[in-house]
Fold each of these.
Amino acid sequence: MALDSKIPKGPIADKWTNYKNNINLVNPANKRNIDVIVVGTGLAGGSAAATLAELGYNVKAFCFQDSPRRAHSIAAQGGINAAKNYQGDGDSTYRLFYDTVKGGDYRSREANVYRLAEVSANIIDQCVAQGVPFAREYGGLLDNRSFGGVLVSRTFYAAGQTGQQLLLGAYSAMNRQIGRGKIKMYNRHEMLDVVVVDGKARGIITRNLITGEIERHSAHAVVLGTGGYGNVFFLSTNAMGSNVTAAWKAHKRGAYFANPCYTQIHPTCIPVSGDHQSKLTLMSESLRNDGRIWVPKHMKDVEAIRTGKLKPKDLKEEDRDYYLERRYPAFGNLVPRDVASRAAKERCDAGFGVNATGEAVFLDFAAAIQRYGKETAHVRGLDENDAALVKTLGQEVIKNKYGNLFQMYEKIVDQDPYNTPMMIYPAVHYTMGGIWVDYNLMTTVPGLYCIGEANFSDHGANRLGASALMQGLADGYFVLPYTIGDYLADDIRTGTIPTDSKEFDAAEKDVRDQINHLISNNGTHSVDHFHKKLGKIMWNKVGMARNVQGLTEAIQEIKELRAEFWKDVKVPGTNEEYNEELAKAGRVADFLELGELFAKDALHREESCGGHFREDAVELDGEQKGEAKRDDENFAYVAAWEYKGEPNDAVLHKEDLEFKDIELKQRSYK
Amino acid sequence: MNLTLKIWRQKNANDKGGLVDYKVNDVSPDMSFLEMLDVLNEDLINKGEEPIAFDHDCREGICGMCSLYINGEAHGPDRGVTTCQLHMRMFKDGDTIYIEPFRAAAFPVIKDLVVDRTSMDRIQHAGGFISVNTSGNTIDANAIPINKHDADTAFDAATCIGCGACVASCKNSSAMLFVSAKVSQFALLPQGKIEATDRVLNMVKQMDEEGFGNCTNTGACEVECPKGISLENIARMNREYLKASLKG
């Protein structure tokens, strides 16, 4: 099947408006006869469910957590971008579009990104109307901060808990519709398959996580807002339950999986402390507004710091290497995430890591505390030369901006980041790849939509900070509700989709067979045993720097691990009860397939772009020496994989990326 | 360090349940409390026993999914953190730790340490929102200036994670802190004032119907709240409720 991205014709700035003017609509009376399933209740799924219900569709929403409010969007910290230009610093729809395409290393679809930038301003209006308490200035207007990879201040925020506030906004919109009976909410339900009838997605199979009951749910369209697959690495900043299962089952039913190798390794996370580690914790990118990243210049100081003989705050200024400021003077500490992560790895690989494992760099707030302290003292008419006072005042400002993050750090590391620099290291955070969708956000299965992090479309090979929240809400509030209507207009006479068809029988049987296999396997190792092994392979061979040999080995090793898993995994208990091990086993089974496709995709893409860094594709000389080297001639396309049985048999389909409104050139943050 | 755990085991909602003793050895002080339970569970699975069921997800203190009543305190002995952020350095070698579910009539046990908190969601369905459609056709965000102090206070109330620690800590199993946080968030903002009357009446009505108790101002909820939600919110809700009742 040829990939048709269905991008509307016309100039980029008019595409979305023209599209909306010309699509089919469903009249309000007919919407009452149409059912839509939304899986996942994060920013994308939650906002979509609420909006579709407001429009009049009958929505069934599903989440595996005990409440829609707990979806992992809740943990997003720093902020949400919008081209409001409230700061008058030169921002515009075009500039947000440009920054996003450039930040994504020219591997995203122009038309989708432009639309995202276009609706971004509306998101802020909408959220304020819903009562989302964004940070404000003393004049009562909204405050902004900066994020990586841009030269303007366009990020709206609510302390270090922006995701929480936005998700609770979407949750409140859902609650209104649940109260009205327009959304039927299924908590603690996990989607285990998509049901395709006559070539269209017409329902899902779920497992009730409390009773184990396998259920059939039908609808005229199915929307997946099920998040990313970063947990394929075992250790990531994702929630423990975040998984690829819904997306992977959709893939197995015909949805192409695009660019799986595009993974974001976030530069500022709390380093791993030991083998017991279950997850990693992010320290928001917003901290790079005020924190400076450094390692010691000299090896003797590295050793003194590691052994505790020298306190980092006592190391003289001239003996520190602020390597981001040194290498990238224009963007400094605010280079994009992929660039910052690789630079940290480079320093640590060279032996300058500052903790016992050698895998940490400093993020230092001393300069910001000084700056803010002096400013506050000046404003209040106090003595700017009183060092103790300045420090106290400066710490107060930092606490107001990032208090919750500093507290998290202190609880986890047992050090006070107000008085000693934080130690940070890159960790898996977000996946730009995902289910392939066209301009309508429809997958290659008619009637099956995919929104938010779960799809691939807007961030190319690297996502800019504060853009995930923007995309999730744009898809759910403002894009999908239009595009899905165009499809559903054909379904006004269809009537309720029956669940007693042979397609539902077959899908339910597949689900039951897999569960029975897992329960009765009686192997010798727990699910986590396999998940951790998979994570090690992924991190060591498909992580921040990739090469042909490592990727080839990874493909083989994952394949073997998968075989071992099915032979030897041990799942206690039964299906007919609350059984977290069983739920985990199903998720890890899918990660074991995805992981192989991921490595295969990384092997085939013989270039470096964004989060995908190939050691055999770097600039060898000139000003950009050592930086990632993209190959636009051969790889300016989306790699969409079609399922054919084993992950290794997947067939590649290419969607060529055309850049008409942005010149394709090397990304430079120098 | 080596620890003795006395953990509540309960097969399902109908089972009577009881405390069971477990030993865990070589616990690192850098482990989180839940990672310590992960280690125990791995051990139980390897021995062919059933692992302990407990709720958890983000493990960074924000989703509100984790719970646990540890040595008689919701989220354990540390202040201002959820169980997932509680670290083993708060305990010492040889300690005995009691681990029970959050207990309240409105939180029936599902299994072991997992409880059903959907009663809290139902209170939100009754009024925890501003009735504005998500069409995007609203006024410009900066057309509504909001006093910074009010915005910050609304934000503080809005940081409630809905974990239920307030209910579990209250001798009356009252959900007043939880409900008042949402009522306060909207009462403090101009956008929320329009429906203030209906909101507080409907949410309180639902709260009572779910079987939560009343507030007798002991303040245990505020002490145990991992997010430091202030008792002032309860006072504000009471004022809102009184105003709304007089309006009828």
Amino acid sequence: MMTSMIGAVESGLLYALMALGVYITFRILDFPDLTVDGSFTTGAAIGTVMTIAGSPPWLAVVYAFIGGGLAGMCTGLLHTKGKINGLLSGIIMMIALYSINLRILGKPVVSLRGEANLFESVSVLVIGIGLVIAVMIALVLFFKTDMGLSLRATGDNNRMIRSFGANTDTTTILGVSLSNALVACSGALIAFSQNSANNTMGIGMIVVGLASVIIGEAIFGSKSILRAVIAVVLGAIIYRIIYALALRVPWLDAQDMKLITAVIIIGALVVPTIRRAVKQKSMAKKRTEDVLASLTTGRNGGAR
Amino acid sequence: MLKIENVSKLFNPGTLDEKIALLGANLILKPGDFVTVIGSNGAGKSTLMNIISGVMKPDAGKVYIENQDVSQISEFERSRWIGRVFQDPMAGTAPRMTIEENLAIAYKRGKPRGFSFGVSGKTRAIFRNELSRLGIGLENRMGAKVGLLSGGERQALSLLMATFTRPQILLLDEHTAALDPARAELVTTLTETIVREMNLTTLMVTHNMEQAIRLGNRLIMMDKGKIILQVNEDRKKDLTVEQLLGEFEQISGKKMADDRVVLG
């Protein structure tokens, strides 16, 4: 039990980078980017293949970061310059990357056994915590810079930011690139922790990312960028813990996890809406009674 | 300062819904001019604003800003010269960002946006000072999200954001039309003060006839994509709403048809 919990926290930290990437597109840019399913594997493939080719693992992660960024840039270009619907741009790139990833890997499954590994001298926990904290600080600071502000405004009110002279095409491409770079980075780290990369490891990743963002925000709130970023990281860890717990349920299987994820997301999206509606209704009812009560007392008072 | 030369714009060209939005419109604004624009529905007022700001490109004709042909320059590049306030109070500000972050974005109008912090001690002092000029207490709420402000407050903030970097041209597109009378009056007064103090070259579309006469030094009237009447400073002083409506009927041969017109 304990070891599986530690394992969940460890992989949660590595997946947190992917969740942060999804947060950038989904929440900040308001751009539902499905490239993630492809770029996660791209990162894993680049990380694995580069390591086998002899480059130090940390450098392989940097290459994965760059590769993911390029994939995101393509999606951004399709959407902004090609004027293709955002969802569709992501789907197109996801499909294209499926072939590209196979090309990079050379075969569907590539093992890292016997090769150098990022985690051979330092534990996953240490690297995970260090990297996640560094990325969180970098993101929070970035979103306070002039460029970061214009990126946030692009997702918030792009007409407004254009009228102040920012090129929203550029900010969108930048945001989607940054997002997929983080996703690919996460993919490479997961490959190192699993000692292998395979061509299907990214499937459903966007949903996992969304689940992390939504769970995190629902529990910890998203009032400021700092708070939201922390929430997303914790959301990713909590998701992995739920995953680990679900796997311990006897009649549930690893393959049921995608369904469980979908149910978690639906719950996280629907419950707050229902709760808000109920709250508003009871408030309206109470206020109406108050107003009616004050009216009747007023009239009675006049009669006496 | 601003010259519009023979500008035409068609919507849905070549289809059954083809509509002439602007037809050979000419207009010159001298530095410091404050021109109010009135006209009936579909006269081309908003199209004129969109052509000047670069949201739309003219099908024929040219737009010059400071003697430079900007007809084919995109909207975001033109914003170096142009400050703009939209009719919709939600349109000019980013709701999920704070007041000071919005001002930081406006502060960088037309300048490259790099990796320095948008809100620093120095810029915050500037923003506080500018906000206090609005006189509605926003300087004490600089960390509040703009989405929490009322429509009037947001429009006052939009006006400040559009003007405090001294754009060469200020475009006001019915920026008080969506506000209740008291808020509209506040924003109108602020507009008057800011334009006068900063001596901004301004083009303002309005549905309020009385406001169109009271504000600014020149007035133009549009109909069917053309500028049909230009009133200069001397004549504008003594103009009344009745005269203006009479003038419109005389030139266009019909009554002013505007479902939102306010006679004042």
